[in-house]
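=== RUN LOG ===
request id: a7f3
mode: sequence -> structure
chains: 1
length: 278
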Amino acid sequence: MLRGSSVKDRGAFSEYVVAYPETSIKYNKESFDQEPLPAGKTPSNNINSFESAASVTLGLGTAITALHHVLQIRPDKDQGKSILIWGGATATGIIAIQIAKRVYGMKVITTASSKHHAFLKSLGADLAFDYHDKKIINNLSQIDIPFAFDTVCTKQTWQSVYDSTAKSLEPVITNILFLKDSDLQLDNSRTVRITSSSVYLLMNGIEQGNVPHIGYTASPEMVKDFKEFWNNILPGFLSHLKHADLKVLGPGLESVNEALDLLRENKVSGEKLVFRFK
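=== RESULT ===
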């Protein structure tokens, strides 16, 4: 797990990369298919190829930072409680659903287009709501939701997450793009702990824990919580993890532009774009 291009001496847009071991995952090479995946669609499955492994690391780090550090969820005290994951079909949402269910034993509520509901329920979602439904906030706000995680992160989805937790006494909500309480229309009669999270704070090296160009620094507590999950919990969970559907592009650096165009044109839904450099 490393940043694409903002650190001068290392980055992801190259044939060979220098990665930090603290945020890397060592897989059993014998369990991997060594041949490149063919161009086209590869359905969701366990991690069994270089492409599928490459598709999950950032989402894992993002979900772990939000759930284990910011929301401070633990299986011994939060099993059976509800969590709302807004954007269940995003790369982070797909992984967060699995962690919330399999690691923490929570009741998982998610939002996504209805075409993704069956898949998300197969991953562990107990309830899935279509975010196009005009009654979605009214329906969600009837449920006690002590934890909520916005993986889409627009001002609209952030407001929806806040409004959806209306029945909860003192919910904790978080997002991954530094949205704050100032981005919300607040109900002053409510007590809501409003937070944000970002695994990018660990992407220059977990011990350095900073992102110079945006001025944020990882706290010692963040480093501790991340290490606890990454080193002690993740190894036992990894064999159960399923990646998103993969859209495999042709090999070569020219696929960088194709991938970025697909993202800009909003043509990626419920899948990850992957390709080999050569």
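=== NOTES ===
The chain has nine helices and eleven strands.
Residues 66 and 167 are 22 Å apart (CA to CA).
=== END ===
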